């Protein structure tokens, strides 16, 4: 999946100066995905256990997405929640990492909470776009806006990742005891990768819609 992420990153980098704040947030998110994928392989090769790196990158990505949603969500109460949520998530990540599941296990609790919060943000932004009077009055379809496609890419990947995060440790335990077969694990990972690639394609579609920005507030 790194190849797809790298390909999607190229047009963002080439047009960096013309990107608005939201698009730049997505650029950094794509970079974090590449670092996540490449870094986890390097950590595993040279250190051994890379589960702590997963937790670190999950939190970094959540922080980036929080900035993205803080910029685009307009409701003051919701913006306040988005603003302070990273501090709560940081506490959950630290507690999960050191006191619940440990640094050598996949932190499914904190990662699952992260994806659930991102899903909530994504759903809220979808509803906000559907009810935006400015878009309705100007007869602007939400699928012509970059923010719609950006949010779609983040949302569908978070859906798959949420299920993956909360089931990974259980699946790993079943595989260790011989109950789960290798094929089941590969199938779940394949679905995750495929959805990840689709997510990157949706982010690129959002990039291709940047010219519409002058007609709306997103």
TrEMBL record:
Taxonomic superkingdom: Bacteria
Transmembrane segments: 26-46, 52-70, 82-100, 106-127, 148-171, 183-205
Alphabetical keyword list: Membrane, Transmembrane, Transmembrane helix
Organism name: Chitinophaga ginsengisegetis
Protein name: Integral membrane protein
């Amino acid at each position: 999946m790194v190849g797809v992420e790298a390909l999607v990153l190229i047009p963002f980098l080439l047009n960096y100066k013309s990107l608005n704040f939201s698009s730049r947030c997505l650029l950094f998110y794509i970079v974090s995905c590449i670092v996540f994928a490449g870094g986890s392989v390097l950590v595993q090769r040279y250190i051994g256990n890379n589960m702590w790196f997963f937790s670190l990158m999950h939190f970094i990505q959540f922080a980036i997405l929080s900035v993205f949603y803080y910029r685009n969500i307009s409701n003051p109460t919701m913006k306040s929640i988005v603003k302070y949520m990273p501090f709560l998530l940081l506490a959950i990540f630290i507690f999960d990492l050191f006191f619940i599941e440990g640094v050598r296990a996949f932190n499914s609790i904190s990662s699952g909470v992260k994806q659930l919060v991102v899903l909530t943000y994504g759903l809220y932004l979808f509803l906000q776009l559907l009810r935006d009077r400015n878009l309705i009055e100007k007869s602007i379809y939400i699928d012509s806006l970059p923010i719609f496609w950006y949010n779609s890419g983040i949302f569908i990947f978070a859906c798959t990742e949420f299920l993956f995060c909360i089931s990974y440790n259980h699946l790993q335990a079943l595989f260790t005891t011989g109950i789960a077969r290798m094929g089941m694990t590969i199938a779940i990972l394949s679905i995750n990768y495929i959805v990840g690639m689709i997510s990157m394609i949706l982010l690129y579609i959002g990039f291709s819609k940047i010219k519409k920005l002058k007609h709306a507030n997103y």
